[in-house]
Write a structure and sequence with these properties.
With 455 residues, the chain is of the alpha/beta class. It folds into 3 domains: 117 residues, Gyrase A, domain 2, CATH 3.30.1360; 129 residues, tRNA modification GTPase MnmE domain 2 (Four Helix Bundle (Hemerythrin (Met), subunit A)), CATH 1.20.120.430; 159 residues, 3-Layer(aba) Sandwich (Rossmann fold), CATH 3.40.50.300. The protein has 15 helices and 13 strands. The strands form 2 sheets. A 7-stranded mixed sheet has the order 3-4-5-6-2-1-7. A 6-stranded mixed sheet has the order 9-10-8-11-12-13, sandwiched between helices. Helix 6 packs antiparallel against helix 14, helix 7 runs antiparallel to helix 13 and helix 13 packs antiparallel against helix 14. The structure holds guanosine-5'-diphosphate.
Length: 455
């Protein structure tokens, strides 16, 4: 992505549309002098960094608006360039006129993500931090905001950077061996290299694993509601959504197909899928439904197994639990129809330590269930992960790093230095892609074009 840093760029930093104020951002070597050309007030070129100034924006004799200009003198700004932020009144007409005027006076309209691109190119942020800026802007829950903020603070990149540096040392030692190829020397201690490679592979593996949760927080948790016909799945779905979405009926097996709804708990989206009954189906349409249930379960992170606490036998309950338990899926047991049982029967229910006892019909303990859903899918999974990978680009680079590291490990004792060196270089390349030590124009274009203009 080519970016001529000699140019001063301008864009609206606040959303389009009418607002109390709009903030127009200028960044580049001439930001302050260009602002001064359209400015009536104190001489901006003579003011200190991090100061605010009241003044008027004028186009010759025509006054456009009364504004406040915030001044950031290079390198103490987001982009490390001179930056002026003009807070004007938030009318589309005023904003457009001021931007046009600034362009007439030497600025150029900024492209999507160009301010952050400059922050990256000028060393203010590394690539994963720049991406965290986009994530932070898009975050819609406490959890996603926290992850983005941690990434922005560099937690993720620091960890990788340290590992990368250690590997670079080995790479250079092995390069050195290549220079002395005829003398059959070994500068890079193979045992140490093995230890380091194992350590890096372990960290990378844990980061790769964290993607599932990171992705869940960012994009939602696939959650399936399963249980025998008439257990109350549809009623429970309605109670959770507090609406009448799924059709409730007395005839077993009416939920022929799957219904998908989104439930938001503490800012996390749970994609709830209500499925046809899991019982052996006799009619073919339902059979397809049953098959689909099993497929949906295998694609989900969370399974809410609902059963009729009054009707189900212990044997059926246990066999359902056993057949639904899959690795990688968290299961919640929900004993439904508690309203049909008296206190004594409730106390005698099986699995009382694990099961959440509710009445979907009477909407009893639904909030408790929501809390459990959140805890099981997010809170309990968070412990043990200091850093979460949420970005698919990072995941792919980590996976490629892992593959290269596995090649390094399997070749350490057998292959010649030149092959080993190649695999290490590959691992370094992919690790570098994450933080931006290694970049290509395509990669930058791809990342920054997804930003909004003005960021
Ligand atoms: P599904 O086949 O699992 O989706 O079950 P439905 O949600 O269609 O419910 C089957 C029947 O059980 C309907 O008549 C519901 O009204 C009834 N039902 C569901 N939940 C409860 C509950 O908590 N208490 C009582 N008494 N009946 C319920």
């Amino acid at each position: 992505m080519t970016d001529n840093k000699e140019e001063t760029i301008v864009a609206l930093a606040t959303p389009n549309g009418i607002g109390a104020i709009g903030v127009i951002r200028l960044s580049g070597p001439d930001a302050i002098t260009i602002a001064q050309r359209v400015w009536k007030g104190k001489d901006l070129t003579k003011q200190a960094s991090h100061t605010l100034h009241f003044g008027r924006i004028v186009d010759g004799d025509i006054e456009l608006d009364e504004v406040v200009a915030s001044l950031f003198v290079a390198p103490r700004s987001y982009t490390r360039e001179n930056v002026v932020e003009i807070s004007c009144h938030g009318s589309n007409y005023i904003i457009e006129s001021i931007i046009k005027l600034l362009i007439k006076n030497g600025a150029r309209a900024a492209k999507a993500g160009e301010f952050t691109l400059r922050a990256f190119l000028n060393g203010q942020l590394d690539l994963s931090q720049a991406e965290a800026v986009a994530d932070l802007i898009a975050s819609n829950s406490k959890a996603s905001q926290q992850i983005a903020l941690q990434q922005l603070r560099g937690g993720f990149s620091n960890q990788l950077q340290q590992l990368r540096e250690q590997l670079v040392q080995f790479a250079s030692l092995i390069e050195l061996e290549l220079d002395f190829a005829e003398e059959d020397v070994e500068f890079a201690n193979r045992d140490q290299l093995k230890k380091l490679t194992h350590e890096i592979t372990r960290v990378i593996g844990s980061l790769i694993q964290s993607f599932e949760l990171g992705n869940a927080i960012k994009n939602g948790v696939n959650t399936v509601i399963a249980g025998r016909p008439n257990a109350g799945k549809s009623t429970l779905l309605n109670a959770l959504l507090n609406e009448e979405r799924a059709i409730v009926s007395h005839i077993p097996g009416t939920t022929r197909d799957t219904i998908e709804e989104v439930l938001n708990i503490q800012g996390i989206n749970f994609r709830l899928i209500d499925t046809a009954g899991i019982r052996e189906a006799t009619d073919t349409i339902e059979q397809i439904g049953v098959q689909r249930t099993m497929e949906k379960i295998s694609q989900s992170a969370l399974l809410i197994y609902v059963y009729d606490a009054e009707q189900i036998t212990l044997a059926n309950l246990n066999s359902d639990i056993e057949s639904l338990q899959k690795p990688g899926i968290t299961m919640l047991l929900v004993a439904n129809k508690a309203d049909l049982l008296n206190q004594e029967q409730l106390l005698a229910l099986p699995h009382t330590d694990k099961a959440i006892i509710v009445s979907a019909k009477e909407k009893r303990h639904i909030d408790k269930l929501k809390n459990k859903i959140y805890t099981a899918a997010i809170k309990e999974q968070l412990s043990g992960h200091e850093t979460l990978v949420t970005n698919i680009r990072h995941l792919e680079a980590l996976q490629k790093t892992e593959e290269a590291l596995i090649r390094v490990l399997s070749g350490i004792d057998t292959v010649t230095s030149d092959f080993l060196s190649m695999d290490i270089k590959q691992a370094l390349h992919y690790l570098g892609e994450i933080t931006g030590v290694v970049t290509t124009d395509d990669l930058l274009e791809n990342i920054f074009s997804k930003f909004c203009i003005g960021k």
